[in-house]
Design goal:
single chain; 329 residues; alpha/beta; Peroxisomal Thiolase, Chain A, domain 1; five-stranded mixed sheet; four-stranded mixed sheet; 13 strands; 24% strand; globular; binds oxa(dethia)-CoA
Length: 329
């Protein structure tokens, strides 16, 4: 039973300063700016410098989100960090963030749902708010994918970037998170994974020699899954919210590949002007991509009060997740 409406009270981002262009990558692997641009839409990405981590980007993003929400860290009841590149397997990066922000004794945990992680986190947060159990929740998507990227593999190293985006979720009078939809297909897990580093293949000289601590991806399979999952999830969430897709004001998809986004938008009959993209600047930042895009869309005044915003993520797992928001301003 929904007692309270949940919405976004403030947003923030944390990005590395270092920019790596497609031209820079031409010097590292056998690729071209032309190939990367036409196949992915990406022109450059931000890459973490030594010492920068998912936590350092989360701190920046979290502080800005709290400031924009006009609340102090002690007001937080819960911190969720969605990431596949936590600072450590444990303790959770969310706990490190709770300490760094001085967030009282807020509950904290990491959420691992690949690139869908931030949208999973929003869905989860909305439930705590809806029931009245919690009043203020910080949801962060943060990644340092550069640390698990094989910089000799041109199939993957041109795609990813680092950074974080954060949202404070709390009670709103009207609008806010109208509906969510999420799901998974673990049968496709092999298409996108980092095989080693967990309990199955701990770090050994052999695992390092075989480069098992890096992202392994079957790009074509992920592409096919992505276009199907995005369109299906968007339709389902629109049905749940009882809002026809044509009434969506802005579509903010996971920023993985311009061709995936354009194909999905076409399937959903969403016109180009309603589709937000910033992947040319950041590449695919996994769980950070949707909150960074949402933040920039708002900054660029592409979202105004009352607008219906559709967020759709897909990624490792395989997972997908969608949210429809009515912007509360
Ligand atoms: O967040 C989820 C994460 N993953 C994704 O979203 C990935 C989804 N998949 C994709 O975005 C695309 O499948 C890719 C961008 C990864 C690949 O694009 P594609 O059009 O599916 O290319 P392809 O894999 O079919 O490769 C075409 C050719 C191959 O050469 P041959 O075998 O035809 O001679 C590749 O070896 O392009 C080659 N290639 C490259 N050439 C230059 C692959 N990567 C590169 C590269 N530069 N960086």
């Amino acid at each position: 039973m929904e007692k309270f409406k949940a919405g976004i009270l403030g947003l923030g981002i944390g990005l590395p300063e270092k920019i790596v262009s497609n031209k820079d990558l031409e010097k590292i692997v056998d690729t071209t700016d032309e190939w990367i641009t036409t196949r992915t839409g990406i022109k450059e990405r931000r890459i973490a410098s030594p010492g920068e981590t998912a936590l350092s980007f989360s701190i920046k993003a979290g502080r800005e989100a709290l400031e924009n929400a006009g609340i102090s860290p002690e007001d937080l009841d819960l911190i969720i960090v969605a990431t596949v590149t936590p600072d450590m397997i444990f303790p959770a990066t969310a706990c490190l963030l709770q300490d760094a922000l001085n967030a009282g004794s807020a509950a904290a945990f990491d959420l691992e749902a690949g690139c869908s992680g931030f949208v999973y986190g929003m869905a989860l947060a909305s439930q705590f708010i809806n029931t009245g159990s919690y009043k203020k929740i910080l949801v962060v998507g943060a990644e340092v994918l550069s640390r698990i990227t094989d910089w000799e593999d041109r199939n993957t190293c041109v795609l990813f970037g680092d950074g974080a985006g954060a949202a404070v979720i709390g009670q709103v009078e009207q609008g806010g998170i109208l509906a969510f939809e999420m799901g998974s297909d673990g049968g496709g897990g092999d298409f996108l994974k980092m095989p080693a580093g967990g309990g199955a293949i701990p770090a050994t000289e052999e695992s390092l020699a075989q480069k098992l601590h890096y992202i392994k991806m079957d790009g074509n399979q992920v592409f096919k899954f992505a276009v199907k999952a995005m369109a299906r999830s968007a339709r389902l969430v629109a049905e749940k919210a009882n809002i026809p897709i044509e009434d969506i004001d802005l579509f903010i998809p996971h920023q993985a590949n311009i061709r995936i986004i354009e194909t999905s938008a076409k399937r959903l009959k969403i016109p180009e002007k309603k589709v937000f993209m910033n992947l040319e600047k950041y590449g695919n930042t996994s769980a950070a991509s949707i909150p960074i895009a949402l933040y920039e869309a708002l900054k660029q005044k592409q979202i105004k009060k009352g607008d219906r915003v559709l967020l759709v993520g897909f990624g490792a797992g395989l997972t997908w997740a969608s949210v429809i928001l009515e912007w509360t301003g």
